[in-house]
From TrEMBL:
It catalyses: uridine + phosphate = alpha-D-ribose 1-phosphate + uracil; 2'-deoxyuridine + phosphate = 2-deoxy-alpha-D-ribose 1-phosphate + uracil; thymidine + phosphate = 2-deoxy-alpha-D-ribose 1-phosphate + thymine. Catalyzes phosphorolysis of the pyrimidine nucleosides uridine, thymidine and 2'-deoxyuridine with the formation of the corresponding pyrimidine base and ribose-1-phosphate. Homodimer. This is Pyrimidine-nucleoside phosphorylase. Its cofactor is K(+). It comes from Pseudolactococcus carnosus. It holds the Pfam family Glycos_trans_3N. Keywords: Glycosyltransferase, Transferase. Belongs to the thymidine/pyrimidine-nucleoside phosphorylase family. The keyword Transferase applies.
Amino acid sequence: MRMVDIIQNKRDGKEVSKAETTWMIDNYAKGEIPDYQMAAWAMAVYFQGMAMTEIADLTMAMVETGHQIDLSTIPGIKVDKHSTGGVGDKVTLILAPLVASFGVPVAKMSGRGLGHTGGTIDKLESIHGYQVERTQEAFVQQVKDIGISVIGQSDDLVKADKLLYALRDVTATVDIIPLIASSIMSKKIAAGSGAILLDVTVGSGAFMKNLDDARILAKTMVDLGNAVGRKTVAVVTDMRQPLGTTIGNRLEIAESMAVLQGGGRPDLRHFIAELAQIMLSLGGVTKSIDEILTHLSNGAALDKFKQMIEAQNGDFDDLLNTPTHETAFSKVVLSPKSGYITDFDALVAGHLAMRSGAGRAVKSDRLDMDAGLRIFKKIGDQVVVGDPLFEIVYNKADFDAELESQVMLDAIVIADEKIEIKEIVEII
Ligand code: URA
């Protein structure tokens, strides 16, 4: 086989066979196919798309390029969860302990943030002492002992994706539905859980900017999961504004703690409870929204979070006593007019938080765990001129808070008519 023929066939809109796909991915992972040929193939996929059988072949070929996690010694249906990326997305931090508090085991590998999106692993590392790297044995044992572990993705899981994702990142080939679907699902399949909840975000802060694309991505991933015997459900969720009221590592941990203590915004609590209901049902447990919310108010979910942090060497008491750390600088921005918030652009807010120090522009950037954004008004909220809209907290002396505030203000729309949005747009 020759890579040039595979590229040419894809370029000309012909289907690529399973044997060709497997050969290509296997040899790419071994370093025998150069990046320039893979990049040409990815761009051909952008223009020609892929048939469902090709996407399934690609996904399974990618799974085969790394280690697969064996969770079979943990009793019960293990349920995984994955978000396609968002701004202020702290769902895993609340949802995982909440689900585990009902006895459904959660063995989850999460990622780091890049660009405007944050990563659960970075947020957890803002907890003093918390270890995100565990051996597979320790990971499995912890889930057996306490029903929950959230760790960083192991290096030898889906090697081809690591290479291909880095290549796509620099060749304008990230936002291609078949490549996103195979990238995410190969990692989920290799991670070993029997059931998967996918949070497919849509809106300015997400990869998918419109509902039609989000639906196609969601359906593609659900079909991929179900085809290999993983019960898979996708929830399309609104990411036109940041999730919750904070963006930034420690800020989001503190907000998650507040929700786990029965506080936080009611809409965030309710959204997480709805996701928990789906995840629990994938794990064979039926609970009402009220029963689920009770585990946020009675300390059951908080206790699971505490157990997980302590099992991974984190200092829970420090977190409880000092949820956030003061930064050297802060700037509160007030509303220039009265009305209702109808837009609070998640992409702009994500970029602002990144530049404040909370995120990375490139992989090697160091994070400021305490920097970020506090949001006081969200879409649907009423504001009166002079009300605080948001606060930027930061430590970098060269951060231009005046300019950044103006850019954010320009991306917030205040109108006369109230609009309502629902976090869950549809379930697929
Ligand atoms: N997240 C992934 O893991 N892969 C993609 O391709 C896009 C988002």
